[in-house]
Amino acid sequence: MVTIRVLVADDQEAAREALRLILNGEPDIDVIATAVDGAEAVHQALLRRPDVVVMDLRMPGMDGIAAIDRLTAAESAPRLLALTTFDLDEYLFGALRAGAAGFLLKDSDPDVLIAAVRELHQGRGLIDPQVTGRLISRFAALSPRPATPELDLLTPREHHVLRLLARGMSNGEIAAACTIEEGTVKTHVNRILTKLGLRTRVHAAIYAYEHGIVTRDAP
Amino acid sequence: MVTIRVLVADDQEAAREALRLILNGEPDIDVIATAVDGAEAVHQALLRRPDVVVMDLRMPGMDGIAAIDRLTAAESAPRLLALTTFDLDEYLFGALRAGAAGFLLKDSDPDVLIAAVRELHQGRGLIDPQVTGRLISRFAALSPRPATPELDLLTPREHHVLRLLARGMSNGEIAAACTIEEGTVKTHVNRILTKLGLRTRVHAAIYAYEHGIVTRDAP
DNA sequence: CGGGTCGTCCACCTTTCGATAGATCCTTGC
DNA sequence: GCAAGGATCTATCGAAAGGTGGACGACCCG
What we know:
Two copies of one chain form a homodimer. With about 220 residues, chain A is an alpha/beta fold. Chain A is built from ten helices and six strands.
């Protein structure tokens, strides 16, 4: 049997010990270290190389989210399970954005916590059922609208020009990229604006972003 | 006990009947209708007003995602549980973006399906544990980077101008909104570009989007 | 074949934008 | 007090963007 090496980070003595006892009660889980704040968690994690870090989000000094941010940036980063008493969107979204692989509220059963650690260790993610709905809503809100029928109005050339425009290129740069005259690009831009009912190239760039024609660069 | 009214939509006869049997086996669940494709599902849902719709994603004609899109646009929309055999990102993300409240793979246990229907009926969301990790990854990728230290460089006025700019307003419009001269706005824009290391207002708008200074409008 | 539509291209003219220099006000520290 | 620095404001000028008109070729259809 493979032993899962776990680091527990929580500023409250009682919670820290409770977590340690719960997890150490399992034969396949070994709490190899604990930390009382984010800074110590980062230090211990880099030193001891746990498989999974159970991280309280609300801690003095460097908080849990900042610590998660640091740890996921490291090489061979551990799997991060965010844990919190307070069910705030800011914690949920912040932790996931920072790179947490799991999110649990502290009122969960010990069994759920144990199962969560195992899930994470096997490469899967885990979201507390109480907050899954909100994650889904937020995800839907963040997702680009699919291409609308309006985009069919654009010719291939116009579509290409729109993508370059939305990356911040000037008419001159677009012209160079397409090997055509700048005056021609202006016409294309103009037709794009007309067809999509927009006023300036800034609107066109926004449109491209909101419709997923261009995507945010990978971090 | 409240009875949960369920609509089952699946193009395959066998799957449809299996789902019906599983769900009708529960005393608090009543499958009130079935549908063989997306179009019929939409029609039946609007007619029979189920609490929960169990929707197969891969169906001929109007597929499940399109049907979900239609149904969530309706008033007093039912809760939508997306179900699929094929574990494709396109299905997962597409269904959630369209408005599904839950996503399950078809190899799940009957008990899981039943529990999912109850969860959805109680207003919660549900994601198959097998795909939770991917949803989290995608969510993190979509989430705007938190405000970078660079933003501290911007004065309140400049920050405000940036937000208006990123909504497509011209210098003149920004001037009117702030009750200052257009020439002044130009200076603010110029300082924004300088401080953030950008070249044109289009870059500034892109920057604002990528850093979550402005958010996509609600659909 | 001839006419219509569409995509692509270019040139001219006006408006808007971007860069620069300088003025005023307010805070901060010596 | 007053000097230094920053924030906010204004004005001017060359550069870029946007609006309009029109040319050319490809294609479809009667």
